[in-house]
Amino acid sequence: MVRSRFATGRPFFLAHAATFGCNSKCQTCSYWKLTPRMKEDLSTEEAFALLDEAYAAGMRGYYLFGGEPLVRKDVGELIDYAQRKGFLTVINTNGSLLGAKAPRLKGLDFAFVSLDYFNDYHDVIRGRRGSFQEVVHGIDRLHEETDAKVGLVTTISRLNLDAMEPMARFARERGVSISFNSVEPTLDFGLTDSERSPNFSLGLSPDQLREFYRTLLRLKREGYPLLETEYVLEDFVAGRPWKCEFPKMFVYVSPDRQIYSCDYRYGYDLRHGSFEEYFSSPQFAEHVQRSESCNRCVRTCVRGYSYAYELRIANLLRLLDDGRTLFAQTRRGGSPAARDVRLPPPARESPKVGAA
Ligand code: SF4
Ligand code: SF4
């Protein structure tokens, strides 16, 4: 990151959407509609080649997501290959297959696991029966089988506005960290407007969004294991403008090997080119320039990454402090008390959903 910040201005994290497929049908996402396009996913050998090229271009982080990356049969091989090359390995998963695949994820450093509610109502949001229990079991299995750290990711929409504090408590009790996002449109690689899910109608109103940030700041100050720093949350609450550094940190590559920007528009065809050519291209320069005044993301992580990239001292001090606290709270497997935690009773009606 320091080399990017002071010398190259180029991304050091390969964010690889490894598959178009997903085994859930979230109400807040339209990506699952692309599952038929899984046939366009890179083969194992092609994904290895992508990792080789990314490493040669200076990248040292491999962020694996999708769709749902664990639906790929070779996900363990990809992670092992990346780890052997020297990448930090991170996965973003809906957790449904973690229990089955945990033994194959030994090379994983960090797992972001999506969980949108603290009981079976999560299944309703996800459109997959049993997924709450799958996530709980999957995290336990990951802790048993690997040294990976786990962070929950909760996406807040109008469906689960009441989940923030209970989810923060749930994370603390299970000995894992947590990050919160607000739902935003998921654009979708060529789907027409009429095919887009109505996800943004479930988005928060401006007032709800302000309350969302205020609640996060309060939870942080109360000592819950939030990944967002207090410094970042204070700026959200105050509505301060900021400069997005994201394109200098992460490069997104689609399942069919094309580079795309954060608005899901293809920017460069890596099938007939190289990272080197892209990073020297006008498209990349334009993307970087556009991002600096974008301010569009409501996602706390993007602002957090940007502040870390800028090496803001006040934020770094908070990060150090958080690191110590989170390390203590998120030791492998959680505390014994966390393992015994009793789940709260369902707060809503039993889900009536079909398994995806
Ligand atoms: S949010 Fe994730 S799990 Fe849900 S449909 Fe989209 S890609 Fe699948
Ligand atoms: S703030 Fe804008 S440029 Fe930065 S990641 Fe978000 S959408 Fe992209």
Explain what this protein looks like in three dimensions:
The protein has 356 residues and is of the alpha/beta class. It has one domain (2-340): Alpha-Beta Barrel (TIM Barrel). 40% of the residues lie in helices and 12% in strands. The protein contains 15 helices and 9 strands. The protein has a 9-stranded mixed β-sheet. Helix 2 runs parallel beside helix 3 and helix 8 packs antiparallel against helix 9. The N and C termini lie far apart (39 Å). Residues 333-347 and 349-356 have low confidence and may be disordered. Bound molecules: iron/sulfur cluster (SF4) (2 copies). One iron/sulfur cluster is lined by residues 22, 24-26, 29, 31-32, 66-68, 94.
Short note summarizing the structure:
The protein has helices at residues 2-8, 44-56, 75-85, 98-101, 121-126, 131-145, 164-174, 206-221, 230-238, 246-249, 275-279, 282-292, 300-309, 313-329, 336-339; strands at 13-17, 61-65, 88-93, 110-114, 149-156, 177-182, 250-253, 259-260, 266-268. With 356 residues, the chain is α/β, with parallel strands linked by helices.
